[in-house]
């Protein structure tokens, strides 16, 4: 397994004499065969600015810096959980990598491989199923049908410019579609992809919505999308703040929709900090809820989310309430090699999942500059198992909990919807 690196022009090479080295958190480590999968279709190789790649001399085991070059990482499709970070050191300590999830990549058997694990079926999230020419036509037709709907106009930008697959589904009328609703948030996430302070050093890769939609606009989007048993409409997108802050329009919109149709599923992606608001949304007919979380340890959670007037205990109570009312609950677990697999992190999260009745762990690669993230969270206290072993421990400790990457529909609920269709 040979080192992959880039020259100053961004050309990618494999090194003929140095073995690949990766990182688990801030620990340099060899890459094991069992941690590799062929580079998935839809992946992108990127050079990491202001970094120096590190390889290993196969004869001596010595770590070698490859000066004059930059490290290379892979950006893998959704549904692939990265197991290791690229092996590098910063050439400029003050430089921050753009907000993406970088995976270790190596050269072996005349092809690229990545340190990763397929966590879910990626068919519905395969970019090949979203042909751009057809999408443009569908966007045009949908906007002709709803020329005054600002949400759909906003989503057309997300679909065509950012190539957001969830937004694209609104125009293909299938699967899980977006319904952004909030321009405000009750958290100040360190790695927020839609809003960063000017002095953060992180450029936001996308723009947050800048208007408050009306109840009528929400109803229009929901009824347009909820036309098949498998359709899902989802509040809480990367282009918005916290959706539950807009419970005052979400609740009546949901009730109006459910007076008209029982088709499809209503989902919310939320930090779940506003427990009273979440209760109202649940009681209005919510089907699915995905709670965004990075840790079940208060100090770590607070360092990343920087919650405003809520605590991790509020999050737990919201999840408990939703589960008690029959909502299919999951966590959107922001995973980072060398942190997710810490003993104390795993113990706390397993207890959180057992307490709250979570049914599904959606594994999501944390998009962050590794050095910035590691410097702000608590240091490891116990053993660090490695991502592969950590996932196996979760499977053993929580045998009834699904480990995936995407929103799942409970089979029995889907069958009921099909019977009603």
UniProtKB/TrEMBL annotation:
SUPFAM superfamilies noted in UniProt: Radical SAM enzymes (SSF102114)
Pfam entry (one): Radical_SAM
Organism: Brevibacillus reuszeri
Source taxonomy: Bacteria, Bacillati, Bacillota, Bacilli, Bacillales
Gene Ontology molecular-function annotations: 4 iron, 4 sulfur cluster binding; catalytic activity; metal ion binding
Cofactor: [4Fe-4S] cluster
UniProt domain Radical SAM core: residue ranges: 180-346
Keyword Iron belongs to the record: yes
UniProt keyword annotation of Endoplasmic reticulum present: no
Keywords for this protein: 4Fe-4S, Iron, Iron-sulfur, Metal-binding, S-adenosyl-L-methionine
Protein name: Radical SAM protein
